[in-house]
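Problem 12. The chain below contains 267 residues. Write out its predicted structure in token notation.
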Amino acid sequence: MGDSVSAVPELPEVEAYRGRAMAAVGRPVAEVSVPDPWYVKQGATPATLVAVLSGSRLVGARRIGKLLLVGTERGPVVGIRFGMTGTLVVDGDSGVGPLLYGPRRDDPNWDRLALRFEDGGSLVVRDPRRLGGITVDPDTSHLGPDALSITRRQLGAALAGSTVALKARLLDQARIAGIGNLIADELLWRAGVSPLRPAASLSGDELDRVHGERGRTLADLMARGGSHRGDLMGERHPGGRCPKDGAELTKSVVGGRATWWCAVHQG
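Solution.
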């Protein structure tokens, strides 16, 4: 994804991490280090991770929303959440640039899990602010359909019957997994739909637009290099102008998140 600053790990960044994890598949693990027991969540312990990974191999990696799932030769799946500043570094490369809210340097004290492979390479989960976490065999039943593959029917079901603001519903990981703050603003701006609208108020045509722009927006952001690469990003500030019609953008707070949108064309 390049060397420029990236945003917090949203779907495009975690998809890049998944690609990096695939570079570690099949390589025997010679050593496992889990220096931060607090970072291991949901009943797992550092000893659990050592038992699962030491002398084993990784057998695959997949993603649900912002959760990375790494399979192991022994069967258990290691789940990794990255919070605001977490990265997955394989053989010295994370596949993304420095994160927006992270430091511009590396420090071994920020390593939460480190695997050394027999070939001398490594896989490291690095998180300066410790807002992520590592689990073993995580329960994913509470997550909605993945934002990258959600169907129009599934999207309609996620929004149906809800009076909460549309953007807040899109950010609800139990309804749709993987949409973050920047992505939600970008896709609604592209679709021409207000983030303040009740989620269930969309017409069929509006639902079509939101679903279509979801796919196009995610594809664009992954191709451009991250969730911060949207057309709206450079105007997310007081006095910022809509790139479509030149109107001054409105700032609202939706679901506790800063929200930038155009009151002229987002109805």
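Discussion. Residues 11-136 form a domain with the N-terminal domain of MutM-like DNA repair proteins fold (CATH 3.20.190.10). Students who got a different answer should revisit the alignment rule from Section 12.3.
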